[in-house]
Amino acid sequence: MTDAPHKMTARDVSVFYGEKQAVKNVSIDIDMDRVTAFIGPSGCGKSTFLRTLNRMNDTIGNARVEGQITLDGEDIYSSGMDVVQLRARVGMVFQKPNPFPKSIFENVAYGPRIHGLANSKADLEEIVARSLRRAGLWEEVKDRLNDSGTALSGGQQQRLCIARAIAVDPEVILMDEPASALDPIATAKIEELIHELRGRYAIVIVTHNMQQAARVSQRTAFFHLGNLVEYGDTDNIFTAPREERTKDYITGRYG
Amino acid sequence: MNAFALMFLVAGLGLIGWLTARSRAARFDRGGAKRLHSLPAQHGFFVAMWVVLPALLFVAAWGAISPALVKQTVLEHPAASQLPQFDFERDALLAEASRVAEQPGVAAFDPVAQQLVAPTRAAKVRYDWIGTAGAILLAFAGGAYAFTRIRASFPARSSVERGMMLMLLVASLIAILTTVGIFLSLLWESVRFFGQVSITDFLFGTHWSPQVIDPARPGRSLGAVPLFWGTFFIGAVIAMIVAIPFGLMSAIYLTQYAAPQVRRWMKPILEILAGVPTVVYGYFAALTVAPAVRDLAVAFGYPYASSESALAAGLVMGVMIIPFVSSMADDSIAAVPTAMRDGSLAMGATKSETISRVLIPAALPGVVAGILLAVSRAIGETMIVVMAASGAANITLNPFESATTVTKQIVDLLTGESEFDSPKTLAAFALGLTLFVITLLLNIVALRVVKRYREAYE
Ligand SMILES: Nc1ncnc2c1ncn2[C@@H]1O[C@H](COP(=O)(O)OP(=O)(O)OP(=O)(O)O)[C@@H](O)[C@H]1O
Ligand SMILES: [Mg+2]
């Protein structure tokens, strides 16, 4: 634990889909230079809560968010917050790789273009190359930047999506089961990548894979039925959980 | 017996076959088997199928060949020797005799025809009886054959399945065969046309005035380029200038912005627009839009504007086409995975940036295909141009001037009074063939584009 101000904080956050409450009074802090893992059985609200952090729930018609979430101390649900700016600062990588049906170059250049990050073509190329390098994809695609992004393998597509998210220079990266659609080798690459990215961004990752959570994260949050049951250092959660439910889940005694 | 009564009879026999076979199958010894291969009703269907199908096939075939047989018999009659040698007139007299033969109490106008009435009637009755007897015989034979085959172990279920498939196949072949038939008849008449008019005169000639045809070189006044141009100008340019933006924008609004309640009533209304009879659009174009367009032209300082301007017909046609464009665009935008949209939004793109940079490019092939289909509908559209476009064949870029279309000219050519064999009438078929081929090509291209697009998201 550190005393530095938290990158993001959530206080008493609840999310409703219509009448149904999917997330119940969750309070949590997200810190810079750390990977935070969300674990928990299917349907417990991990994705829902993750999406509140960059207001992607706004795109779901009947979703409603209560409570307070801040980014650098600023309430992201306040009327003064520009969603466009927020999402540029809090990037997201989805479970299923979703590159745009454009070239590899254009996929990565998409964010910088819409946010006007590059002053010249050379500038843009520089950003694209740097993002692809950080995403560990550069060596594989540098000779075919004009090929379609959808023509890559699943693992490459996912790293392309990470490069795309990195290209707008976010501060926080949210990943919703980024490796669940990938084979073990591609998964290992993504995990390695998360390790390398750790120093630059605050990373939040949802995963169903206990080993993965243990390998990549420093902090782990265990969700159950919409509640945040336990949140602490990953080592503690996995070796000495305080809650019975956490222990049951981690040892596989729970669905 | 007439064909209708015969069908009833055969259907009745089929029902009897079904009932007897079912009751017999119900009494089959199961032989200890727990599960029957086929239910009694399926045995019934098997027999009924064998009663009905061969008989019906025979009736259809007989219906096709018996007129030729009747004609043959009548021609062998002594009175037939007085018939003129010339094919066309001879057929006319025979047709008259045949018509009179079916209406007792009416006399034929031509004495030769009158002489042939009695033999025609006799021949008809005879072949009719043969047909009826053959059908009934076949029904019984088929039924008997099927009846001997059913037993507890007989897989009637699979046979019925096969019969079903055959019936469906025939049903779908009928549409295809009709298309082929239409194409062949168009082709046939067009070949006759091109026997009289050179194909280059027709396809590349720029002068169209079928009213005054020089018999020495009919092609000189049958150059179809002005019609092709008018069709293209009205259907593919003016109409699309209306239909593409409005269709696209309404699709974008409906898929991306409209609240579900709005979408629920707005989409059906758009679809109703597609169901308005084109003749109603025709009134609208001729009575409301055309005068308004002319007044507009005059206001713009163009006093000689036609009251049958290309613009009026094109505008209304464009409105008619909007629902086609919008529903195809709607489908293809909706088919773009939500993950794509979310990916863009999560990058901090606004809704309109997402639409213009991700959704539309991703949906583009489907949208293009929709536009091609819409163009092919527009250039084949007849009623609006018949009522609102002019007959004057101009090659013009001025939308206030009059232009004519292929479909409008076809109607004019065929409704005028002139012999069937003249180049003027035959030109209608050549025009029809051209239109058919162009529309077909547009459709093929559109379907290919759509198919490739579907594959991209598998
Ligand atoms: N768009 C939606 N509309 C209504 N209910 C939803 C919607 N999305 C999720 N839910 C409900 O909210 C609850 C939490 O869903 P969520 O997707 O956050 O779970 P999760 O923990 O991510 O599960 P998984 O591990 O399977 O991804 C579930 O009960 C789900 O049925
Ligand atoms: Mg989830």
What's the gist of this structure?
The complex is a heterodimer of chains A (255) and B (458). Chain A has 255 residues and is an alpha/beta fold.
By secondary-structure content and strand pairing, the structural class of chain A works out as alpha/beta
CATH class of the largest domain in chain B: Mainly Alpha
What profile does the largest beta sheet of chain A have?
6 strands, mixed
Give the CA-based shape of chain B. flat
Please give the CATH class of chain A: Alpha Beta
Count of DSSP E strands of chain A? 10
> What is the CA-atom radius of gyration of chain B, in angstroms?
31 Å
What's the rounded overall pLDDT mean of chain B?
87
CATH superfamily of chain A: P-loop containing nucleotide triphosphate hydrolases
* Class based on secondary structure composition and strand pairing of chain B: mainly alpha
Assembly level: heterodimer
User: What is the CA-based Rg of chain A, rounded?
Assistant: 18 Å
> What is the terminal-to-terminal distance of chain B?
57 Å
β-strand percent of chain B reads under 5%
Shape of chain A: globular
Sequence of secondary-structure elements of chain B: HHHHHHHHHHHHHHH
Percent strand of chain A equals: 25-35%
Helix-strand string of chain A = EEEHEEHEHHHHEHEHEEHH
Number of domains of chain A: 1
Largest interface: A-B, 28 and 20 residues
Domain ABC transmembrane type-1 (chain B): 229-446
Family (chain B): Belongs to the binding-protein-dependent transport system permease family. CysTW subfamily.
Keywords (chain B): Cell inner membrane, Cell membrane, Membrane, Phosphate transport, Transmembrane, Transmembrane helix, Transport
Transmembrane segments (chain B): 6-23, 44-65, 129-147, 168-188, 227-248, 269-290, 310-337, 358-379, 426-450
